[in-house]
Amino acid sequence: MQQKPESLAEEGSSRSSAQRARLLLSCLYLLGFLDLFGVSMVVPLLSIHIKSLGASPTVAGIVGSSYGILQLFSSPLVGCWSDVVGRRFSLLVCILFSALGYLILGASTNLFMFALARVPVGIFKHTLSISRALLSDLVPEKERPLFIGQLNTASSVGFILGPMVGGCLIELDGGFYLTCILCFSVFILNAGLVCLFPLSEGKVTSSKNMLQLHKNHAPLEKTNCEVQEASPTPQSMVSEKTPRPPWMEVMFTLQNMKSLIFSEMWDIFLVRLLMATAVMLYYSNFVLALEERFGMRPKVTSYLISYSSVLGALSGLVLGPVMRVYKHNCYRVLLHSSALTFLLLLLYCMAPTVGAVVFSSMLLSFSTAIGRTCITDLQLTAGGAQAKGTLIGVGQSVTAVGRVITPLLSGVAQEVSPCGPPSFGAALVFVAIFIMSLNKPRYGGGGLKSE
Predict the structure, then answer these.
(1) What share of the chain is helix, strand, coil (3-state, %, to 5)?
(2) CA-to-CA distance for 20 and 22, rounded, in angstroms?
(3) Per-residue pLDDT reduced to its tens digit, 272-319
């Protein structure tokens, strides 16, 4: 009888923790939706705006590549910084500086202001990367692909709605300015959402520092700090003995990044680069290619992009059943989704009708969305005890390399044919499949499967 009050208290605490877990996940999904909703309103209009400022295609390409260059160097810095100072603070800073960049972009009346506006966005636009790192801190490894897929689904819904809203606003007087102001407001709303996160700050120094969140949203009984104190790692015990300032922690992490990139994970990063570049090549001249091949108006093409993104958003909902069919073997899912991407790119290049283009575009959104989730999970699994923010940051830097080289590759390929960029992308996907097949004994044998 004396234990009943204690059991009731524990049950109440567990119920409160479960509610807090569901609330945090909902906040992360809403943040992902608003992030891509705001960005996708503006990004499709950038080429129109920079052309109105008098920029030549070459200058526009250089300015566009500057964003990728900034992302290349800032991704690992911001990733390891979030491991040191905590996810909430780093996420809040990134959102606020990104909002500032879009505000300056709306006020840009010359090329200098346009280029200046891309600087804070290129350096700090890592909100989704930090969100994925936070999510990977919270959920068990086996459930990680499912929850990351759901976050990608929420983000994809924003990408579906954003271009349509931006397309409507651009037709108004001062439409680009209004679109940027709306994007700025969305980022400020996201900043307020981060401030309301039901999350206690704590430095993440090990993959063991995760809050166990089960399928039924089981109780979150410990905060990040409490988990770190309860399960100290060698790194954390060293830091307790000799505490170091944050800047020294960042420098220490950066010193290990070279060994991380050239470690046994080199093939994962190479596959990520090849797949990311292939997808960006496919989208690089999508509007122009359809106009030249079938006479399709850009407005209709934008609707096709949004329509195709719907299937990409739905991929997050079916990722759970797919992973169960594959027994949570992310390597096999990635290999097969990449093979499907290769075939669909070939179909798109050889499509004789608009219907074939629509079919291939829809399924490409599905296969690439699943591939992105699996490569992220495989990267985190292979990284083991490495700090997740740093791992995801390095992965984003690899993707940023693709953003830098894609405009050059696309320009050269378009000299041959409107289908040149996606054809070259298909070749890159084939190389990625070949690399994964060579490493099948290491990944396919169960060594890096999500347990």
Answers:
(1) 80, 0, 20
(2) 6
(3) 999 999 998 898 778 778 878 888 776 677 777 777 777 777 776 777
CA 377 → CA 110, 140, 382, 445, distances in Å?
42, 12, 9, 17
Residue 221 neighbours by CB distance under 10 Å:
16
| Residues 241, 242, 247, 249, Cα dihedral to 10° | -50
Write the single-letter amino acid at 242: T
210: pLDDT strictly greater than 90: no
Distance from C-alpha of 132 to C-alpha of 52, rounded to nearest angstrom:
36
CA 48, chain centre distance (Å): 25
Per-residue CA distances from 27 to 20, 135, 331 (Å): 10, 11, 30
What mean pLDDT do residues 34-55 have? 84
- Taking the C-alpha atoms of residue 64 and residue 434, their distance in angstroms, rounded to an integer, is 31
> pTM for this one?
0.64
- Structure confidence by residue, pLDDT tens digits, 385-404: 555 666 776 777 788 788 87
Name the residue with higher pLDDT: 449 or 136. 136
pLDDT tops 70 at residue 451: no
Separation CA 337–CA 327 (nearest Å): 15
Contacts of 285 (CB under 8 A, 6+ apart): 410, 414, 418, 421
Q: What is the DSSP string of 381-421?
A: HHHTTS-HHHHHHHHHHHHHHHHHHHHHHHHHHHTT-TTHH
Instruction: Read off the tokens for 251.
Output: 């420098």
Contact 87, 134 (CB under 8 A): yes
Sequence-ordered alpha helix ranges (H) in 86-200:
87-107, 111-124, 127-138, 144-169, 175-195
